[in-house]
Specification:
Blueprint (H helix, E strand, L loop, with lengths): L4 E9 L2 E6 L2 E7 L1 H11 L4 E5 L11 H8 L6 E4 L8 H7 L3 E4 L1 H5 L2 H10 L4 E10 L2 E6 L4 E6 H11 L3 E6 L11 H10 L4 E4 L5 H9 L5 E4 L1 H4 L5 H10 L7
Parallel strand pairs: 1-4, 1-12, 4-5, 5-6, 6-7, 7-10, 10-11, 11-12
Antiparallel strand pairs: 1-2, 2-3, 7-8, 8-9
Length: about 250
């Protein structure tokens, strides 16, 4: 069995790490460069950088900030926010990104997934899906989770995989920042449906929630932000707990 991954997420706004609840009520969580370096030292398996305001502000990701973070870490680094074409990717690669995460632009133009997978390989493309349960259906949202789309979670995830996405990063908007646990049911369905890794995001509040994501939701990786940013759950402590609970994980 492949080892499971723990992934801290740096949500970036105005050059700072921020965190909110359901993507609103944003508060400062620190310097992203220092946080990234700290997580690499703590044993994080990967790091995700999401420029959460790039799409809404109609601009590209902060490339210089990506470069500064990449210089301080030695783990795989995924970058997202404001990526809408192949031309946007080269500066991020040069700055040190190992993968890119696409969301709003892929919903608007699904062929972007095909183009990136063909140009850089599926392992380079992470399809981020922000979804909220509306009228008993998981509806995909864009623009930092603020705009509902006509796409539904499971059919969109399947289409993304067929177009060449190498991973799905699923964030439940209903759970994000609440610390009440991951959305286990849709997570499990995604893992049954897809042959590519699924990353759980949104709702981590304690170490038990990570165990549930791996054992019940069958997630390949679990992502969290505020729980790590504010020192509530050190990564070494979490990993030891998971290992002792029978989860294959790198210590």
């Amino acid at each position: 069995m492949l080892t499971k991954r723990i992934i801290p997420c740096l949500d970036i706004k105005d050059g700072r790490t921020v965190k909110g609840i359901n993507f609103v009520n944003i508060r400062d969580a620190g310097d992203p460069v220092e946080l990234g370096a700290s997580y690499a030292l703590q044993g994080a398996d990967e790091l995700v950088f999401l420029d959460i305001a790039a799409t809404n502000e109609n601009r590209k990701t902060f490339v210089n900030l990506v470069k500064k973070i990449a210089a301080r870490i030695n783990i795989p680094f995924t970058v997202g926010g404001g990526i809408s074409s192949i031309e946007d990717v080269a500066p991020l690669l040069e700055a040190g990104a190992d993968k890119v995460s696409i969301n709003s632009a892929a919903v608007k133009s699904p062929t972007l997934i095909d183009q990136l997978a063909k140009a850089f390989g599926s392992q380079f493309v992470v399809l981020a899906i922000d979804a909220r349960k509306i009228h008993n259906q998981w509806t995909v949202h864009t623009h930092g989770g603020s705009k509902p789309s006509d796409k539904k979670l499971f059919s969109w995830a399947r289409e993304g995989a067929e177009r060449g996405a190498g991973e799905i990063l699923f964030t439940s908007m209903d759970h994000d920042g609440t610390k009440q646990g991951f959305a286990i049911d849709p997570l499990g369905k995604l893992n049954e449906l897809l042959q590519i890794p699924v990353i759980a995001s949104g709702g981590a509040g304690n170490r038990q929630h990570f165990l549930e994501a791996f054992l019940l939701g069958k997630a390949d990786a679990a992502l969290a932000a505020s729980l790590f940013h504010f020192g509530e759950l050190p990564i070494p402590e979490l990993k030891l707990y998971l290992k002792n609970s029978g989860v294959p994980i790198r210590i």
